Amino acid sequence: MMKEYELFIGPNHPGVTGNMSYHLWAEGDKITRAETRVGYLHRGFEKLMEKRIWMQNVPLVCRICVPEPDVNEAAYSMAVEDLMGWEIPERAKYIRTIILEMARLSAHLLAVGGVAAALGIYTAAQWGIGDRDYLLDIFEQITGARVYHIYIWPGGVRWDLPKNAKELILKVLDYLEKRMPLYDDLIMHNKVFLRRSVGVGIVPKDKAIEWGVTGPNLRAAGYQLDFRRLEPYAAYDKIDFEVPYYPKLGDYEVLSDGSDIYTRTAIRMLEMQQSIRIIRQALKDMPEGDVLVKENKANKWFGWKVPAGYAYSRVESSKGEFGYFVVSDGGKKPVRVHVRGPSYTHGINVMETIARGMNIADFSPTAISLDVCPPDIER
Question: Which whole-number Å values give the CA distances from 200 to 195, 204, 233, 323, 355, in the listed order?
Answer without folding.
Answer: 9, 11, 35, 30, 11
